[in-house]
Design a protein that fits this description.
The protein is 29% helix and 15% strand. By secondary structure, it is an alpha+beta fold. Strand 3 and strand 4 form a beta hairpin.
Length: 410
């Protein structure tokens, strides 16, 4: 998600973290810790793009340096970075610590909260139901949920494309106070919508792009109505399982499968950094509650970008983007970003950030997972890592994304 106030699932003034060691990374070797750098020999099959480099030890060393630099400057406790492309090898590394209290290292097998990447799952669920003929993208939300401002004119498509004009509930002062005063509190979708609907609409439907968690809460309710199942059950069964993901879950409370990294945030009542590992993500629900791990996200990147769970026609509609903010080469489709050719989504909520993107030309996948959401000089840490990596491997396709107002953030 984007921010509680500006980005919870998505940015606030940086608060200094305790600087933790970020020395040698932990390599990914399937079962456990392995060599410091993993560079798999390229497969005999040709790569889809000659522009994507071979992930040689020399390239891995450049990536190590770039990741460590961002980690040190932004004071990130721990980060996992995975980059791969057919015929080019793969780079999978973990740096820093997963738990500042114990010094336990970050490793590539940890479960992580993925914030707004949840949106990609919720919108996929909606689009599956559209493919089944149970709804149309241009249906008004008022057909399914009563009491929505402009509900007779805002369509499901506009909700998924962040063009509804509705107020973002996670930017509401009362919501921020309620969440930070009791991070274990469970919120209902109706309570979240109430924080939004007490505010006037921001603009006419489809007039502008504005990243907004309220949109996804409404789409989650639509999925429930059309499927007859709780959203978590539908997503876990028809999206997660259908995609062959083994460690991805839409939780119903604060449960967090082991092993997992501890997450650190300054989105707190007093602005001081706290351990947010066990905060209840119900406030994010369809917009940001899910949990996943590196292998699953590596797989999901391709599934999402290529649309294997949807009909080709529906996937084409999903990937039709409109400008998202002021940055060039950045567009938003239906629950999905296209940033200079990289297709996917980022995620942020208290304590965690993530980035899962796919470059079709090279069939390349980049996943970044980190255990803080504290911004650095106004930038999301996940974006800093994404930019640093892509500047090295795909200088013609650099991932730059402006902060999105998606999660609570003061």
């Amino acid at each position: 998600m984007g921010g509680v106030r500006a980005r919870w699932c998505g940015v606030a003034a940086a608060v200094a973290l305790v600087v933790v060691p970020f020395g040698a990374g932990v390599g990914y070797a399937g079962e456990g810790a392995g060599p410091a750098v993993v560079v798999v020999a390229p497969s005999p099959s040709p790569s889809a793009s000659d522009e994507f480099p071979q992930l040689t030890p020399a390239v891995a060393a450049r990536l190590d340096e770039a990741v460590r630099k961002v980690q040190a400057e932004a004071k990130i406790p721990g980060v996992i970075v995975s980059l791969s492309a057919p015929g080019k090898g793969e780079y999978v590394r973990a740096f820093g610590v997963a738990d500042k209290a114990t010094g336990a290292p970050m490793t590539p097998d940890l479960n992580m909260r993925i914030g707004s990447e949840t949106k990609t799952f919720t919108v996929t669920a909606l689009l599956q139901l559209v493919d089944q003929g149970k709804a149309k993208l241009d249906d008004p939300i008022g057909k399914y949920v009563a009491g929505v401002p402009n509900g007779d004119r805002i369509t499901l498509r506009e909700l998924a494309a962040m063009r509804s004009g509705l107020f973002n509930y996670s930017a509401d002062e009362g919501f921020f106070k309620a969440l930070t005063s009791d991070p274990q509190r469970a919120f209902t979708p109706q309570e979240l919508l109430a924080y939004s609907f007490k505010h006037p609409v921001q603009f006419e439907p489809n007039a502008e792009f504005e990243y907004c968690n309220t949109n996804l809460i409404l789409l989650g309710l639509v999925v429930e109505k059309l499927s007859g199942q709780p959203l978590a059950s539908y997503v876990n069964e028809h999206v997660v399982k259908a995609a062959g993901l083994r460690h991805t879950v839409f939780p119903t409370g604060a449960e967090f499968p082991n092993p997992h990294a501890h997450g650190y945030t300054n989105q707190t009542a007093d602005g001081k950094t706290e351990d947010a590992t066990d905060w209840n993500p119900s406030w994010g629900w369809a917009a940001g509650a899910m949990i996943s791990d590196l292998p699953d996200l590596r797989s999901w990147a391709k599934t999402l970008a290529t649309g294997t769970l949807l009909t080709p026609a529906t996937q084409a509609q999903r990937l039709k983007v409109t400008p998202a903010g002021d940055l060039p080469d950045t567009g938003y489709g239906l629950g999905i970003f296209n940033v200079d050719g990289w297709i996917g989504h980022n995620g942020s909520l208290p304590g965690y950030q993530s980035l899962t993107i796919y470059l079709p030309e090279a069939r390349a996948t980049l996943v970044v997972l980190l255990n803080t959401d504290i911004s650095h000089e106004g930038s999301e840490p996940s974006t800093l890592f994404g930019e640093a990596v892509t500047e090295i491997v795909t200088p013609e396709h650099v991932y730059r994304l402006a902060p999105q107002a998606a999660a609570p953030r003061h």
